[in-house]
Specification:
The complex is a heterodimer of chains A (about 375) and B (about 325).
Chain A: H1 15-52, H2 56-59, E1 70-72, E2 74-78, E3 83-93, E4 96-105, E5 109-113, E6 123-126, E7 133-134, E8 136-138, H3 144-151, H4 154-185, H5 191-200, H6 207-219, H7 227-230, H8 238-250, H9 253-261, H10 266-277, H11 279-295, H12 298-303, H13 313-323, H14 328-348, H15 350-362
Antiparallel strand pairs in A: 1-8, 2-3, 3-4, 3-7, 4-5, 5-6
Helix pairs in contact in A: 1-14, 3-14, 4-8, 4-11, 9-10, 11-14, 11-15, 13-14
Chain B: H1 6-57, H2 76-83, H3 85-116, H4 124-132, H5 139-149, H6 156-163, H7 179-188, H8 192-204, H9 207-215, H10 220-248, H11 252-257, H12 271-281, H13 285-313
């Protein structure tokens, strides 16, 4: 501040200006780099959208077909007697490229009609037609979506997925709130050990319980129904309990005690004191479960084998896409439809999701 | 007028008080067990009993086609496991894949989170949303999306590679060498969750530490390795454990991508796919349970090793 004298070369290159310039450059470079990375990261979405909007003809084009959904241009030429469907090419003539319809393809020359002026004299172009680029025009086939929607019976899949996800969500909320309340507020002997066991189930490989669980559900006749996908969620889950417990622990105990003095029992305290203060955490857990169940594939795969009328979106889309693999535009359209609801939910409720991820991840 | 016999009241209070106090504590404990019971029952029925039953099944020829006839076969299933070429190959595939994807799964979230934490980045919430988004996409959708993206002929990736001068880009899904890297790329798409946790931890590193390091003359690189990495090491450890467990269970991506075959040439035939086929397609539940317990043992051993070594490199700022 005081007596240090800086050499000042000029007004324009003052240290302040240089600093600003450096900062500006850094901001531009970092933001540009991140944008580029994000663009590459999200490119598969673009690929999906574009394929979902193509028609079969343009998909047959292979590596040289245009990137965007386009359609090869044809021209219906009527020579007075009958109508012919002619391919349109980009033809370089006299230094300009014109779009002309090929009337006769010969070995060393092509006879073209100008679609804008069909009655004019045909133009003869010297050269092999194979060296010419076919003309394309932008063409998005939106009908792929309704077509896929009908073929896959999307309303049925949607209904099945919704019931499985929603009832399971109710189950996991009821049970996880109850268990988290127990861990947060009650003097249970060996509570810390029980909590470690609960958290330990997060790193348990799922296979080790899979076969006996399946055998159990099979022996009580639950395979081929939604019950194995719903009922286990009524018995709490480590992530949800952890998230809710962390939240409950931050709530002041004074309110519980005040309610207790007013004569409220533990159940009433839960429903009237704890839950009303915890909507943020409860919504987060509900959303997480809903999206998880919506996206779950393995459970429905093994428990709903051979029951197409009960299958959720994940298995329905997989089976459809295996069967219709030669129709990539339908495969991409169904993939888009399957992810729409979770993505929209996430974008609308991103605050809840992100806070939930941070609580379960950081405080572990 | 009020002729309440005071001595009686006092007596009542004094005799009842200790007993009532006790019963409130006991009552609270009882309520605690009651509220805990959903998990206790669930843990017993859906975790503890199945783990034990799995071990027992592994010594039997249990199959669902004749569930009433269970014969003990001793160690036959375990001996079979170590002589089953498909299982051994699947184990090799699983560990080979884990070896290439683990470093990426650990490093990428840190790099991405550091980028998104940069003070020079404009629009942080927007980029955070974009990089998180694919994590929310159902596995089924993302597999088919990537199948199109990686398509050797028309996929955008190979179009891009051709554009930058690679005349013959790899046939990602059709070649046994490239299917692994292809699945690594699909896995990279799910980086969002780990990135977000890392980012939140990064934001919690006290600025004073960086200021002090600057005073001591440390550059950005030194600060990253000497301050940032130690301070976020608990999150790296958490990601590491979850990634290792996730890789041991890897199933949906190779199963759907290869239509359950694990081809080309078995290069995507993971251990869990062998388990699934054995137990659910060939109904050999006894052998399937053996494979499940084998993976469980590997998971326990790896977890113990990771926890043991974590003392050396995971730094907990709050002490133990």
């Amino acid at each position: 501040m005081a007596a240090i004298s800086h050499p000042r070369p000029s007004v324009v290159l003052s240290p302040h200006f240089v600093k600003q310039l450096r900062k500006f450059t850094a901001i531009s470079l970092v933001t540009l780099f991140t944008s580029l990375a994000a663009l590459i990261f999200l490119a598969p979405f673009g690929n999906m959208m574009v394929v979902a909007l193509r028609d079969q003809e343009s998909l047959a084009g292979g590596p040289d077909s245009p990137i965007l959904p386009m359609k090869q241009v044809f021209y219906d030429y009527n020579d007075g007697q009958r109508t012919q469907r002619l391919e349109v090419f980009n033809v370089p003539i006299d230094g300009e490229v014109r779009q002309l319809a090929a009337l006769q393809k010969r070995r060393t020359s092509v006879v073209f009609i100008d679609p804008n002026n069909p009655t004019a004299e045909p133009i003869t172009w010297q050269g092999n037609w194979r060296s010419l680029q076919p003309a394309y025009a932008f063409y998005a086939r939106w009908e792929n979506f309704p077509e896929a929607w009908q073929m896959i019976d999307f309303p049925l899949l949607f209904r099945n997925t919704f019931i499985i996800a929603f009832v399971g969500m109710i189950g996991t909320l009821l049970s996880s709130i109850s268990v988290a309340y127990a861990f947060a507020r009650f003097p249970i002997p060996g509570k810390n050990w029980l909590f470690i066991v609960l958290i330990g189930t997060i790193i348990l490989p799922g296979q080790v319980t899979l076969i006996p669980t399946y055998a159990f559900f099979s022996s009580i006749g639950w395979t081929g129904t939604w019950l194995p996908l719903i009922v286990p969620h009524f018995f709490a889950n480590a992530y949800n309990v952890f998230l809710l417990r962390q939240f409950f622990m931050t709530l002041p105990r004074e309110l519980d005690e005040a309610a207790m003095i007013d004569g409220a029992g533990p159940f009433r305290i839960l429903t009237h004191v704890i839950v009303p203060q915890s909507w943020a955490a409860i919504i987060t857990v509900g959303l997480f479960h809903f999206v998880w169940a919506w996206n779950d594939y393995f459970g429905p795969l093994i428990y709903l084998l051979g029951k197409p009328e009960l299958q959720p979106i994940s298995v329905g889309v997989q089976l459809f896409n295996f069967r219709y693999a030669p129709r990539p535009e339908l495969v991409q359209a169904t993939s888009l439809m399957a992810m729409l609801l979770p993505i929209v939910l996430f974008i609308l409720a991103q605050r809840f999701f992100m806070r939930g991820v941070v609580i379960t991840g950081v405080e572990k | 007028m009020t002729s309440v016999p005071t001595p009686l009241r006092v007596e009542q209070v004094t005799t009842l008080r200790p007993r009532r106090q006790m019963s409130i504590y006991a009552q609270q404990r009882l309520w605690g067990w009651l509220f805990l019971s959903p998990w206790l029952i669930g843990f017993f029925v859906f975790t503890f009993v199945p783990i034990v039953a799995s071990l027992i099944f592994s010594f039997t020829d249990f199959t669902l086609t004749r569930p009433d006839q269970i014969n003990f076969v001793g160690l036959n299933n375990w001996i079979k496991l170590f002589n089953d070429p498909l299982a051994l190959n699947a184990l090799r595939v699983t560990f080979g894949f884990a070896l290439i994807s683990l470093p990426i799964a650990i490093a990428l979230p840190v790099l991405l989170a550091s980028l998104l934490n940069s003070k020079y980045l404009i629009g942080k919430p927007f980029f955070r949303l974009l990089f998180y988004l694919p994590y929310m996409v159902p596995a089924i959708s993302s597999i088919f999306i990537w199948q199109a993206f990686l398509n050797g002929q028309t996929g955008w990736l190979n179009r891009l590679l051709r554009l930058i001068g690679i005349a013959e880009p790899p046939n990602w899904l059709g070649h046994e060498f490239w299917i692994g890297p292809a699945m690594v790329l699909i896995g990279v798409w799910g980086v969002g969750n780990a990135m977000l946790i890392t980012l939140a931890t990064l934001q919690g590193v006290p600025q004073e530490l960086y200021d002090a390091a600057k005073v001591d003359g440390a550059g950005a690189v030194a600060a990253f390795f000497k301050i940032t990495l130690p301070m976020i090491s608990p999150v790296i450890f958490y990601n590491l454990i979850l990634t290792v467990i996730g890789l041991l269970q890897y199933f949906v991506v190779p199963y759907v991508l290869t239509r359950g075959t694990g081809n080309p040439n078995g290069a995507a035939y993971f251990f869990n796919m062998h388990l699934y086929r054995t137990a659910f397609l060939f109904q050999d539940m006894g052998y399937g349970a053996t494979m499940a317990w084998f993976i469980f043992i590997i998971a326990i051993v790896l977890t113990i090793i990771l926890f043991a070594t974590s003392r050396r490199w995971v730094y907990y700022a709050g002490g133990e």
